[in-house]
């Protein structure tokens, strides 16, 4: 496996969930986009995962389009042991690296959304530019 200068490789991408819900869709009205980001760790495999979930709504709590994507980042073993693993037994992903992972995952989700909705009425709904810094406000710490 080839790692970049930051000591990780983007090794996997999967669509966790996708749904278009016709009964919740209205042609008119303001669209609300609900965005969530989360992270996971696999200690044995030296992997950090980043999940992003997007829900498009025109009616409150009734999404008409849902997409959740998971990206997998393989951390070089020595970097995982020396930088991610902490002395107290926790695992840390610095805020800057977590933001970088989230940016890569959101960008991937944007392409997945386009591919999944191509040729449908939902293709006009694009993921806008998202300030991921507002979604990831601090270091990500796993206490296992």
Automatic annotation (TrEMBL):
Question: What protein is this chain from?
Answer: Uncharacterized protein
In its UniProt entry, the species of origin is given as Gelidibacter salicanalis
């Amino acid at each position: 496996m080839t790692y970049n200068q930051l000591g990780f490789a983007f090794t996997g991408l999967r669509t966790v969930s996708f749904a278009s819900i016709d009964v919740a869709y209205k042609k008119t009205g303001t669209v609300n986009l609900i965005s969530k980001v989360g992270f996971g760790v696999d200690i044995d495999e030296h992997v950090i995962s980043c999940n992003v979930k997007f829900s498009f709504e025109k009616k409150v709590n009734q999404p008409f389009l849902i997409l959740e994507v998971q990206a997998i980042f393989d951390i070089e073993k020595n970097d995982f042991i020396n930088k991610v693993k902490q002395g107290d037994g926790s695992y840390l992903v610095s805020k800057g690296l977590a933001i970088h992972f989230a940016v890569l995952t959101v960008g991937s989700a944007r392409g997945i959304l386009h591919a999944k909705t191509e040729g449908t009425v939902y293709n006009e709904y694009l993921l806008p530019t998202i300030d991921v810094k507002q979604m990831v406000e601090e270091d990500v710490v796993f206490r296992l």
